[in-house]
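Cross-check.
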Amino acid sequence: MKLIVIDRDCVMSQDTDMHEHGASAWQTRDSEITEIARLNQSEYRVVITSNQPGIAKEQFDMKTLNTVHNKLHRAAQALGAHIDAIFFFFFSSSDDCDCRQPKPGMLQAIGKRFDLSLKYVAVVGDTLPVLQAAFAVGSVPYLLLSKTGLSTKEKGGLPPSTIVMQDLRAVVDSLNPREQLAAEMVEAARHALHKKK
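Predicted model, tokenized:
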């Protein structure tokens, strides 16, 4: 099974306050949803993640959050894409829970849900906590250079294995060649072993 984890704000509009504007202000980015469709075509399972402390702070409720996520699912379906699951954490940082990124609990829960090791799985985001959580479980952190991602890059402190990409399309373009290279290396190793015998 091939899996990729994408932070929600990489496929939906950012800088939107749900407490002020509700779910109606949140819009998907069609260009990014199209890339999810491409991932599906390459047999990737796609999981979306998000920290949502606004619920604990009573800035908005679960109904509003569910409306936003339903909007994301409908937008994906309209463009021929499929999102396998949305994982979110709704406590505040003061709760010190292991599931709030940059801690690894949410990613570990995804691994259990899909019965899959997260080692080398691509985790895509534009904030430092997402990248740190990815690094903590041995996944490959991808930093997208959105407005938020540019700020994240400028502040520094990125995990040493972070791969910087312009957008989700660049990530998708990079994945298949990397898989092909890995397959060729495995095949070369098998061939060398066979020759020794």
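The helical segments are 18-21, 30-41, 62-78, 105-114, 128-136, 147-155, 168-196. The chain has one domain: 2-169. Passed to J.P. for a second look.
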